[in-house]
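Progress note, sequence design subtask.
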């Protein structure tokens, strides 16, 4: 059985993503932080890890780009997860009883319209992830509190779902990366994540990006990440997609001549988004 490290606890969206990618027959290893996730892979204590990298509302998790590079991890896949948020509580708790709501700060932000409309006077607690908030409802059974989390948490911790789909944006997705200590064979891949640096002179970045265009490579995402202790310097992270592997190989060889440094973080098959 594959051992998969996730940030958070069982029932989290990270576990949802792991099950979507690997199937249900997995052994989920809980981690308190993304740093802990990377350490488990590096020390060969798990087979793979699942790490959130961006959300359509909250944006990119810049620190995770740095963790992947610092730990020399390989991206071997990706999965897109539709984020539905739900109000849940211990059995017997009614909406009229709720004086406190617990969840992750981003989840609360994504449900602020619902909260302001139906629970304008409640006290919000945002110091735990969604699954941990649900687990708190199950273990402590507060009579005046609810959690905002995914349906997996409600099922796992035997909570009552008071209302489904309370998020403001119904097309909210999180992209998760599948990480390993070693990379994939390149056969059949059609997407890559790379990062590079360029010199500080006119047109340096543009000349690299033009290489991809000339070789029919689609730049799916461009993200600049500040380099620690080097003010005004950045690593450029790019997600590339191609139809022919030959175009990609040719582009990479050309970029090597133009960039001051280049790292291929992973080559993998593009994940599919199934819009809800």
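Output:
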């Amino acid at each position: 059985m594959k051992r998969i490290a996730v940030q958070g606890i069982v029932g989290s969206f990270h576990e949802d993503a792991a099950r979507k990618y690997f199937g249900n027959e997995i052994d989920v290893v809980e981690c308190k932080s993304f740093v802990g996730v990377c350490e488990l892979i590096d020390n060969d204590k798990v087979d793979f890890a699942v790490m959130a990298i961006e959300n359509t509302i909250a944006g990119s998790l810049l620190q995770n780009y740095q963790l992947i590079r610092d730990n020399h991890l390989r991206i071997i896949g990706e999965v897109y997860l539709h984020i539905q948020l739900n109000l849940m509580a211990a059995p017997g708790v009614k909406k009229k009883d709720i004086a406190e709501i617990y969840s992750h700060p981003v989840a609360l932000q994504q449900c602020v319209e619902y909260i302001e409309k139906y629970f304008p006077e409640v006290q919000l607690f945002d110091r735990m992830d969604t699954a941990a908030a649900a687990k708190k409802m199950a273990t402590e059974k507060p009579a005046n509190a609810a959690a905002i989390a995914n349906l997996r948490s409600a099922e796992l911790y035997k909570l009552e779902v008071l209302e489904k789909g309370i998020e403001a944006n119904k097309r909210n997705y999180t992209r998760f990366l599948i990480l390993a200590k070693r990379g994939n064979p390149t056969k059949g891949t059609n997407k890559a994540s790379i990062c590079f640096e360029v010199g500080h002179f006119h047109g340096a970045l543009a000349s690299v990006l033009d290489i991809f265009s000339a070789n029919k490579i689609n730049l799916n995402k461009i993200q600049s990440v500040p380099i620690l202790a080097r003010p005004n310097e950045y690593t450029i992270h790019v997600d590339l997609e191609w139809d022919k592997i030959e175009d990609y190989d040719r582009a990479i060889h050309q970029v090597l001549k133009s960039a001051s440094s280049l790292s291929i973080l992973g080559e993998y098959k593009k994940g599919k988004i199934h819009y809800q």
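The chain has three domains: 2-83+172-180, 86-163, 191-268. Work on this subtask will continue into the next period as scheduled.
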